[in-house]
Amino acid sequence: QVQLVESGGGLVQAGGSLRLSCVASGRTFSRHAMGWFRQAPGKEREFVAAIGWSGSTTYYADSVKGRFTISRENAKNTVHLQMGSLKLEDTAVYYCAADLRQWSTAHSDSQRFDSWGQGTQVTVSS
After folding, report:
1. CA-CA distance, 69 to 72, in Å (whole number)?
2. What is the pLDDT of residues 41-95, one digit of tens each?
3. Which residues contact 10 (CB under 8 A, 6 or more apart)?
């Protein structure tokens, strides 16, 4: 499986911005869809954003549309989540995930993402 390591989490005030990064090991990164999920205390893990293997397709949860942007740099085996206009309800542990099916497109099905990172904490304060 692909090993994923997230970074970039931290404490930020409401209305601020933060960029998360996820670095993947392996040599087939460019063939897989990537996604970001999050889990707040007492809540189930929820989908945030995904990007297809080519980077040409993206998919966002309604709660983050217009505020978050997912992107990838295949040459660096890295996927990013640029978060802006952060709200208190964005506070959660954010996880990076990879769909190991080749040529996979952007989607929100957590069951089809095979590899997961350990997560990075994002805390939005008032």
Report:
1. 10
2. 999 999 999 999 989 999 999 999 999 999 999 889 999 999 999 999 999 999 9
3. 18, 121, 122, 123
